[in-house]
Amino acid sequence: PLTGAFYGFELVIGIYSVANVAPVMAAAICASLTAEMFGGVPFPLELSGLPNLTASEYVPFLLLGLLGGAASIAIMHLVSIVERVFVRLSIDASVRPFIGGIFVGLLGLVTPQVLSSGHGALHREFAMNYALPVVASVFVMKLAASAISLGSGFRGGLFFASLFLGALLGKVFAGVMAMTAPSVGIDPAVAAVVGMTSLAVGVVGGPLTMTFLALESTRDLTLTGVVLAASIMSAILVRETFGYSFSTWRFHLRGETIRSAHDVGWMRSLTVGSMMRKDVRTIPASTTLSEFRKEVPLGSAQRVIAVEHADQYVGMLLVPELHSDRSDGETPVSALAQFKDAVLVPSM
User: Fold this and answer.
1) pLDDT tens for residues 299-327?
2) Strands of 303-307's sheet, edge to edge?
3) Whether the Cβ atoms of residue 232 and residue 86 lie closer than 8 Å to each other
4) In this structure, what DSSP letter does residue 288 have?
5) Nearest 10 degrees: CA dihedral of 289, 292, 294, 297?
6) pLDDT beneath 70, residues of the chain
7) At what angle do helices 246-253 and 58-88 cross, to 10 degrees?
8) Separation between Cα atoms, residue 202 and residue 234, nearest integer Å
9) 44-67 in b/e burial notation, b at 16+ Cβ within 10 A?
10) Which residue in 65, 98, 171, 210 could disulfide with 233, CB within 3.0 to 4.6 Å?
11) What pLDDT, on a 0 to 100 scale, did the predictor assign at position 44?
12) In Å, how far from its chain's centre is CA 193?
């Protein structure tokens, strides 16, 4: 429930507010209790038996947090590269998912762990201890499969895929550290949790969301502190070098000028009604062209709205065009109005 609540605070609402605590927390707790009542698992991961951590072990995990942020940036760049390749090859958008599916299917023949979001594969990674080359190869192939899927036009995001990739990255990091600095003694399961959250923070955003995910999965406060530190390192790296999380970055590619989840919420709450001007000049649609020129001299306004009874919109009259129009002076201005069928209502 804490993970879901802070997901709403950080990624949907975009701000921590006392007024939102009660409804969001109530909804999260009710959802968790309902799922548990009907036999659902309240936590996506159940991890136990993790070793105790000391303050001296924070440093390598801070490095892992930076690596998680760098990996998340690499994923976002790879998606963009795949999209540019399809555009450069002039492949029709309707055909791209088929081509992407072929490549992902070929990777799936090597290992099915690259398929789907990785729910089962993530649990398997925590339950089994694979050799370093195997884990590294799965990480590379899953990274490629995710980039190809999104770059070829498949819908969806990277939320759970980023958790799986992060867990793989953490295990690779632990394996490399065991070879280069065995005295450090990093536990692969702990590294997997830290890598999972740090890479997910870079892709999805929300360091506190991922921190509470680790807390609710492990129930280990010491590990939660390590996760929070690594998540902050990842978030800072992504923010300072790339600028945005994956979700916000995809909004930018669609042309939306936003910088955070708070901007997304603000943009969605912005309506046409709040942007409308109420001091606009109007004129009856039955007014003749000669009368219009007398009432609205050239230069007095850029545009005037033609209305019928009860101020019903008819069209927009561009003042310079009506003054230069060669139509008969008795022509009603409604015949010269523009944007007759292009309207916005206040609720939009």
Assistant:
1) 788 888 888 887 888 888 888 888 888 88
2) 282-284, 303-307, 313-318
3) no
4) B
5) -120
6) 14-16, 40-51, 54-56, 118-121, 123, 127, 244-245, 247-269
7) 20
8) 6
9) ebebeeeeebeeebeebbbebbbb
10) 65
11) 56
12) 22
DSSP at 8: I
Q: What pLDDT does 256 receive?
A: 59
**Residue with structure tokens 């702990």?**
190
- Amino acid making up residue 161: A
Packed helices 159-180 and 119-127: angle between N→C axes, nearest 10 degrees: 20
Please report the DSSP string for 159-190 in residue order.
Answer: HHHHHHHHHHHHHHHHHHHHHH-TTT---HHH
Interstrand relation of 313-318 and 303-307 (parallel, antiparallel or unpaired): antiparallel
Looking at residue 102, its pLDDT comes to: 92
Q: How far apart are alpha carbons 266 and 271 in whole angstroms?
A: 10
Question: What local confidence, expressed as pLDDT, does residue 217 receive?
Answer: 76
Say how many CA atoms lie within 13 Å of 106 toward its Cβ. Answer: 7
How confident is the model at residue 310, as a pLDDT? 78
Tokens 């599916």 sit at which residue?
Answer: 101
For residue 51, the model assigns a pLDDT of: 66
Residue-range domains of the chain with CATH: 1-37 (no CATH), 54-266 (1.10.3080.10), 274-336 (3.10.580.10)
Are 345 and 312 in contact by the 8 Å Cβ rule? The answer is no
CA distance 249 to 336: 43
